[in-house]
Amino acid sequence: MAEVFELSQIEISQELLNSLSTDQRAMFAALSLAISEIETLRSGLKIGPKESLQFSKLNEAFLLRQFALMRLISFKIYEIFRTLGGVGSHNNSDDQSIRSFRKCSVKRRRKALENLQGQELVRVLRNKVGFHFDLNEFRKVSGVGGQSHELLSCIEGEFQSSPLGDIYVACMLGSKDSGFSEYRATTAKENLSELSDYIVEGDRLLNDVWADFLDQFILPHVSIEKVDCEIPSSLVASRGETPFALFVRRGEA
Fold this sequence. Notes:
Elements: E1 2-10, H1 14-19, H2 22-45, H3 56-84, H4 96-114, H5 118-130, H6 135-138, E2 154-155, E3 162-163, H7 167-174, H8 185-218, E4 224-232
Antiparallel strand pairs: 1-4, 2-3
Helix pairs in contact: 2-3, 2-8, 3-5, 3-8, 4-8, 5-8, 7-8
């Protein structure tokens, strides 16, 4: 079965891309990639069970998978706003249109993002263990102690084994500082709430910047066409109804 959806289609020609300056094209490419990756990750947050699962470890696994997506989304938002703001010499630009765009569209939104409570948590997550996996940071895990031992369980059976807990998550979320010295469940909940708010507001701010960029550099030179697209039902998820896969049967790719 298939469903028909009305989509907006914008055709961006090579001629239009060539008419942009080097830095305009670079900014367009960076924004396009960031928006695409964030939207792909966010789709995973919108599906899953409406109610708690009977086996508590499955609830834990589902939440940890969602948190993995939340971490990645927050890192993408954090990084693209550094690029947008011209952080680092490699992101500088002498293009006056880009400098003006940064001043008029990016500056106030980047400041709003940095003022969010979750900004420091995301910075620590990203810098300490987000992409680098520095052993020095993981050596600090021992300070968590017995309170998190249940987070280390996993399930084996018909499916590929799936870790249903993650001491790293407990350390990063449940610690009051980057030393991960003491885990507290209440701290973990507060940090998770901050991260969620950071993603929601950061995504809104980024989409506002994206809309401004399109309005200034792209849309005046293209037309928007409405097209009906037939999409297989297997590719359309429903919030709270479509299952979030936690396991893959052995032998399946």
